[in-house]
């Protein structure tokens, strides 16, 4: 096991920073205020339109389910002979 700085020392997550308190205004119940005041390390996050997330290249056409063999073939259970 490595520390975060040791992990970065082997070339992993070289551009990352250690966990920081985002500085939410008052995230505790019941106020649940997750706004970010000035000076917060979260300031500068660019809000994006979630409806634009996902694939941008052509849709993959799925295989016809009838072309896929059953993983576990099933048969009718005969209680007189199947035990």
What is the strand tally?
Answer: 0
Total helices: the number is: 1
- Report the C-alpha radius of gyration, rounded: 26 Å
The amount of helix comes to under 10%
Judged by helices, strands and strand pairing, the structural class is little secondary structure
Strand proportion? under 5%
N-to-C SSE string, H for helix and E for strand: H
Report the principal-axis shape. elongated
Please describe the biggest sheet, giving its number of strands, its sense, and whether it closes into a barrel. Answer: none
Termini Cα gap? 50 Å
Low confidence ranges: none
Average pLDDT over all residues: 78
How would you summarize the topology of this molecule?
Elements (H helix, E strand, L loop, with lengths): L3 H6 L74
